[in-house]
Amino acid sequence: MTMRTGRRRGLFRTAGLLAAGLAAALTISACGGGSSNPLDTSTSAAASGPASGSAAAGGGKIVVGSANFPESALLANIYAAALTKAGLDASTNLNIGSREVYIKAIQDGSIDLVPEYSGVLLQYFDPTATAVSADDVYAALVKATPQGLVVLEKSAAEDKDAVVVTKATAEANNLTSIADLAPVASTFILGGPSEWETRPTGVPGLKEKYGLTFKEFKALDAGGPLTLNALLSDQVQAGNLFTTDPAIPANDLVVLEDPKNLFAAQNVLPLIRSDANNAQVTEALNAVSAKLDTATLTELLTKVAVDKQDSAQVAQEWVAQNLS
């Protein structure tokens, strides 16, 4: 199971956006973090702030929580907007903190549900888990989820590690997947966080699963501006970014497919307390998962983190346009 940085369950990553030579800093994550994110200016889809959770099954208010990074707050706002559209009384309590904190908040009833990522949530509930594919991770997660909690349907949207190249490099070398690097890896410099040099999901894993031996590994950062700048300036020919990073579409970069699942699946899905769930809640949230994919999440996150649009408004507009 891949983890981004030395921290077991979280990271705030900074990704530089370069267009026409200009870099702008972002801080985004898929796995939760431990401190407040200054770029998160999102608001709730209904009423945000401290709340005491309540059971949807009893007709009460549903409180949607989030971790303290923009992508999680955006997803929470989407869930709240979808529930509201379905006729339920939903509010948000955003930027709660790390996974340890917000899962406790679900369990004690302070909130009712939270957006999560399948791979890291499975690892949280079962540190011995070895599943990596989307379906296998989800199946294992359903079994590992503690009594009193339930995960609903997974979406196609993922925020996970990726090996990324420029469009020019991809076209020049016919690259669509990591496996396609085999003929050229010996001439390529690979860039990524320093821990990639020894981590099973870094250089050793690329060699073991794909038979790749790169010309050199250059220690840079965890999907941040150093890696992005190095890719764009051809200092490295392949680098580690994250799949919902707005820098990828902004710079026309190519995410190489991972057919051998070196990086465990990280599908976005709702984690909800069982007594806050019912058929109406499940239907509303599963409808979100059915429509949400990585490209869509990236586009929405760009509006929030780059264009500085209000997170709740972005969520409400997407729900209005995509959910019947």
From TrEMBL:
CDD domains: PBP2_ProX_like. Residues 61-321 form the ABC-type glycine betaine transport system substrate-binding domain. Keywords: Signal. This is Substrate-binding region of ABC-type glycine betaine transport system. The keyword Zinc-finger does not apply. The keyword Signal applies. GO terms for cellular component: ATP-binding cassette (ABC) transporter complex. It comes from the Bacteria. InterPro entries: ABC_Gly_betaine_transp_sub-bd, TAT_signal. Residues 1-32 form the signal peptide. GO terms for molecular function: transmembrane transporter activity.
